[in-house]
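tool=predict chain=A
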Amino acid sequence: MSELLTDLLQAVEDGGWSVAQLLGFCGTIGGMLWPFFHSRTAMLLVQLVPCLCFALHFALVDAPTAAALNGLAAIQVLAALAVGGRAAFRIAYLLILPVIAVVMALTWTGLPSAFAAAGMALISLARYQTQVARFRGTMLVALPCWFVHNSLVGSVPGMISDLTGIVVNAWMLLRGTGMAPPQPAPLATPIPSANGEAKLS
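tool=predict ok
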């Protein structure tokens, strides 16, 4: 099995594709797909793919802050799935913000670290949301931060993923996905009164 994997990786590199690029584009596919899902759970599940792939991708392109934060993001997605929409536990998404700051400090490489940390912090705020439209809207603020980071470290797969996420999320919001106002409560069934007039119970 290990020999097969080694041969596959060698074939990829011989064809002009580095392992880092391959992992990055696998993450890009996940980044392109998740905005098309309508439920919060489905979006989070698909987001595991780019989190894990980009953690490895950034480690291979010497972007340590992004690598560490994507690993942290994968853990956060799993926690978000377990917690669901229970308000008592959603505070965990906010408590992770100091952890992001610590990771940024420990892996500091300048502006790339700052933009990666900002993007991750905003994604944490997005996952704090339980309403799909707010989730998408906050992601629209987070993704440009990641785009700047990826342009600074030269991650083409990352930039493609970010641009796709920005366009698709904006489009879905404009279409009104997840933004329908709550339906008014139905009126009670009229009950004839004693004098023959209808009234609402």
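The chain is about 70% helix and 0% strand. The CA atoms of residues 131 and 182 lie 12 Å apart.
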